[in-house]
Amino acid sequence: MPTAYITHPSSLLHDMGPYHPECPDRLRAIGDRLIAAGLDGYLRHYQAPAATHEQLARVHDLEYIATIEAESPESGLNYLDPDTAMCPDSLSAARHAAGAVILATDLLAKGECRSAFCAVRPPGHHAERRRAMGFCLFNNVAVGAAHALAVHGIERVAIIDFDVHHGNGTEEIFAGDPRVLMVSTFQHPLYPYSGVDPLGPNMVNIPLAAGSGGDAFRDAVTEHWLPALDAHRPQILYISAGFDAHREDPLANLKFVESDYAWVTRELIAVAAKHAKGRIISALEGGYSLSALGRSVAEHVRELMVES
Ligand SMILES: [Zn+2]
């Protein structure tokens, strides 16, 4: 079964200014690298729909959604926090970024694809139920996971977050929900300075010290993530796929390399094969070295395309 590659033109139009690291060129770097690696032609390409109000409201307050809609500017940039701005195209990009994970969920639930990579912006894992922050407006992965639980008869999902920053938004949305297991690694201390004290028993948060490399990451995955995932028996796996723990990334100080991302993808595919009919959905979060991002995503997607 094919791997879906889901994106939308609006993802390239969301632009927070010429010096912002979360920039449209990130998606161009990924697309170019997938072509250069010979992978693009083997992916099944889809255009993301816009997430509906009802779909967003499963994880965000109605008042918050209305605020984001009201903050959308007619021109220029409107800053929601010092790092997070909306341009006139951002609202559409954010709706389609969440919609990409909805579509991925539908494709996998219907058996049309076995895995999916959502190449979308803005990212989502810092967005809380009622707060935009850290470059994120809507929590894309949370919207997708909630859709699986609400619509497809899925009883258990897992969210795996290997972005270098703690996924505070996803944790805030799902803490205490026994249907959702979240496992994560993140550099600590680092923005957003949360995660060390988990908000619920369904959170497996593993902080890593600055300078940690792939060995520390693989130990965390093997010792903490995999036993928890095995016990939870998720029926779909969602990856908050940030690649800013790469050693070349300018925003943080971990030292992962491409082979670490390939390794963890293989480990997660094995979990998906055992419990989830192989179903695994990955959505882009961070990753700010354009070259390292392209190379890392290519290795990640290459593994997603392999039948386990
Ligand atoms: Zn990040």
Count of individual helical segments: 10
Mean pLDDT, all residues: 98
Output the strand order for the largest sheet: 2-1-5-10-9-6-7-8
What ligands are attached or bound here?
A: zinc ion
Determine the structural class based on helices, strands and strand pairing.
alpha/beta
Radius of gyration: 17 Å
Order of helices and strands: EHHEHHEEHEHEHEEHEHEH
Strand elements, count: 10
- β-sheet strand percentage: 15-25%
Helix percent band: 25-40%
Describe it.
With 308 residues, the chain is α/β, with parallel strands linked by helices. 40% of the residues lie in helices and 16% in strands. The protein is built from 10 helices and 10 strands. The chain has helices spanning 10-13, 25-36, 53-56, 62-71, 90-109, 140-151, 168-174, 214-232, 258-275, 290-305; strands spanning 3-7, 44-47, 78-81, 84-86, 115-118, 157-161, 180-187, 203-208, 236-241, 280-284. The strands form 2 sheets. It has an 8-stranded parallel β-sheet, with helices on both faces. Strands 3-4 form a two-stranded antiparallel sheet. Helix 5 (90-109) runs parallel beside helix 6 (140-151) and helix 9 packs parallel to helix 10 (290-305). The model has no long low-confidence stretch (mean pLDDT 98). Bound molecules: zinc ion. Residues 163-165, 242, 244, 285-286 line the site of zinc ion (ZN).
Descriptive tags:
308 residues; alpha/beta; globular; binds zinc ion
